[in-house]
Amino acid sequence: MFDLEKAIAGWKRELKGGRALEDGYRRELEEHLRDKIDDLVAHGAGPAEAFDEAVRSLGGRDDIDTEFVKARKGKRRAANALLGNYARIALRKFRRQKGFSFINLAGLSVGMACCILILLWVKDETSFDRFHKNADRIFRVLSIDRAGGGDAWDTSSPAPLGEALVRDFPEVVRAVRAQSGWDGWDLRRGPVVFPEARLAAVDPAFFEMFAFPFIAGDPRTALADRHSVVLTESLARKFFGGENALGQVLQMNRTDLRVTGVIRDLPRNSHFQFEYAFPLDNMREWRESRLDDWAYRQCATYIETQPGVSGKTLHQKIKSLVQKHVPASRVELDLQPLRDIHLRSTRIQNFAVQYPNPGNIAYVFLFTAAAVCILLLACVNFMNLATARYGARALEVGVRKLAGAGRADLIRQFLGESILTSFVALAAAGLLVVLALPAFNALSGKSLSTADLVRFPTLGGFLAIALLTGLAAGSYPAFFLSSFSPARVLKGGLRLGLRRGGALRKILVVGQFAFTIALLAAALIIAGQLRYIRNKDLGFNPHNVVSFAGYGNYYEDFPAAKQELLKNPDVLSVSRCFPPGPGFGGTTAVDWEGKDPRLDVAIYGDMGDYDYLETFGLAMAEGRFFSRDHPTDADNFVLNETAARLLGPGPAVGKRFTMDGRTGTIIGVVKDYIAGPFHAPVQPKVIALRGGFFVSVKYRPGSTAAVLGFLEETWKKFVPGRPFRYDFLDDTIEGYYRAERQTGKIMLAFAGLAVFIACLGLFGMAAYAAEQRTKEIGIRKTLGAGSGRLVGILLGEFIRGVLLANLIAWPLAYAAGRVWLRNFAYKMTLGPAVFLAASCLALSVALLTVGFLAWKTAAADPVKSLRYE
User: Fold this and answer.
1) Which residue range(s) make up the domain with 19?
2) Alpha helices of 639-720 — where are they, by DSSP H?
C-alpha cells in the first residue's frame, strides 16, 4: 500500500541533497506540494498518482534551484526596499517633529556620551598590569602584621623571602624584589641631572618577569652587573640626545653606572612607574638596606608561578614562612594577583613600590552603575515620548494593517526607526566625547585620547551599546503601537491621548527622577565627606611647612645649618625630624609600668627634636614636650592620646616606658593628630628625641615664594651638586584624597548631566501634555479659572511624580552612601540634609522646566483654542 507521508519524507531528503536551500524556502515548497496533492486527491486522483503529478508540477532540481534563487533575490530586493522605506519614514518624521526629534536625539546623545566616557574610564582602570605576558601567574607578596590584635597590610616583605620561595616551593618559577617610584636621587652625567626621574632598584630577573619592551640591550642580562643601569627611552634622550645610549656611563652617589639597556617609556596603566632601574644590591650601600635580615621589611617581592598553580593554595603553604625564621614575628604572608594591585590596594601601605593615583574597585562599580543609570534615563525619555505621541501614529498603523502589513512588519518598522535614531545619536555622542575629552581628562586625572574611541574592541562595544539602546528604547513603543486593532482605530473606537499608557509613563518618570536624585545625593555625599575632611581639626597645623631631605651639611652639621635658616625673618622654626605621617613599621617591643604581659599591642614611632611641637603646631594634652633645659629628655618619650590610653587608667606622665630596648620616662602626652588618610583611625604613637632624615621649616604665611628662593640658595651652599627638592606638608595631606576629589567632581558632573537628560524628557512630556490639554484649559479659563489654578493643574501630575521618586531614591542613596563611608574611620554624619538638598535641587529644576510651559499654556487666549469648536 502506498505510504504518502513516507514518499513526502523521501522527497524532502532528496531536496536537501541538492544545492543548499533556506529552511523557509523548503517549507514553502513542501506546503505547495501538499496543497497540490490535496487538490488532486479532491478531484479523484489516488495518493500515488497525486504525489507524482505534484512533484512534476514543481519541476526538476534545476527548476527548483532557479526558482529559489529568484525568490531569494526578490526577497532581498523587497527587504532593501522596505529598509529604505523605513529610513525615509524616520527622516520624514524627524523633519516634521523637529522639537520632539531634537529632545530624543539630545537625550540619547548626552546619555550615550556619558556612558562612553565612563566606560573609557572603567576600561582604563581595569587594564592595569594586564599587558605582561604571564600576568595571570604573577603575584605580589603582602605582609600582614597581626601584632597588637590588628591587621596592618603592607607591600614590603623580608628581603630574603624571594630566594627562599624559589628554593623551597616548586610552584614558584622565579622571584624578584623591587623598590621603585621614588624621585629626588642624583643620577647624573657630569653636571646634567634630572632629579624628577623616578628610580627602580630591582633584582636582575625583573625584566624577565615583567614585559617592558627593550629598544636596546638584552632583558636577561641587562642588570647582571651591579654597576649597570637601564633607562627609559625618554630619559635616554634627555641624557644623550640622538647618541646611542648603550655603553655610556652615568654617575650615582659617586659610583659609575654603565647603560646596559633602553626600554620604551612605561605605559600609564602599569603600577610600576620609573625612568631608570639599577640592581637592588646597590641599596646595601646607598640606603643601608638589610637585604639578609628576615626581621627587616623594605622590599616588595613578586613571584611568578608554574602554570595552573592556585594563588589561594600557595598562600596557605607560605603564610607562616616568616615565623619559621623569626619565631617572635606576628607577620603572615598573603598573595595578591598582579592584576588586582591597582584597584584592590586601598587599605595596603604602599611604601616599597610607590606610584601616583592608585585606583579603587568601589569606584569602578560606582561609575559603571552610573553609566547604566544615565543610559537608562535616556532610553526612558525615548519610550515616554514615543508612547505619549502614539495617537498621532494610530491612524498610520490602522491604514498599514488594512493594506496588508502584519504586526511583525510594524514592529520591524518601529524598531528600525528607533535603531536609526540610536545610531544617529551615537554619531552625535562621539562628537560630544571628542569635545569633552580634555575636560574629562582634567577631572579624572587620566590621559585618554580619541584613539581609544576607534580601537576595534572599544568601537565594537559602542556599536553594541547603540544597537541595544535602540532596541531597549524602541521595544515598548514598537510592541505597543503594533498591537492596535485597525478597525477600532479607523472607527474612532480607540481613545487617543495621554490616558492610555499613562500609568507606565508615570512609573517611568518616577523611576527616571529616582535615579537622578540618587545620583545627585551620591555626589553630594562625596562632596560632603571631602568638605568634612577639609574642615576637620587635624590636631596639628600642616600649612606653611616645607620639608626637604637632610643631605650634606644638613646632616653633618645641622645646628649650624639651622642657625643659617633662622636668620631669615620669615622662617619661624626649623625641625630635623620625620614629618607627621601615617606611620610605618609599628613595633610590639614595648613595655611600661603595670603592663599586662598578655597584652599584645603595636605602637608606631615618630622621630623629632626640640622644635617638633612648634614646627607642626601640636598641642599638649598632659605634661610637657622635650626641652633643652632637661638634658635627660634624650632618653624620654612623649606619647599621643591613643597610645596613652593603652597604658590603662590614670595619668601616663611619669611612667617608665620601654620601646625597642630603650627605656625612659613618659614626660608628656600630645593630643591626637591625624597625619595620614582618614581611612584608618589614629595609630598609637610615641615621639622620641631622635632627629630624622628630613628638615622641616615653618614659615610666615604669605612668604612662600621668598622662603623657597632663600632655601634654594642655602641648599646650594650646604649641599653643592645636588638639586633642591621639597614638599609642602599640606600638599602631602591633600594627596591622600586625590582619588576621592576626582571621584566627587566626576560624580557631580554626571549627576548634572543626568538632571539635564531627565529635564529634557520632562520638557517633552510637558509640551505634549500642554498641547493635548489646550482646549481643556480654554474651557476652564472661559468658566473663570485663573492662570495660577491652571498652572497648578498642569504642574501637579509631574511634580507628584518627582516627589514620589524620593521614596525610591533616598533608600538607594542612603545604602550606597553608608557603604562608601565605611572606607573612612572619620566621616560625616549621614543626615537628611543631603537627601533634602538633592530632592530640592531636582524639584527646582523640574519646576523651572515644566513651569514655563505650564504658564505659557495657561496664559494663552482661550478664543484661539476654542475658535473651531
Assistant:
1) 4-82
2) 641-646, 704-718
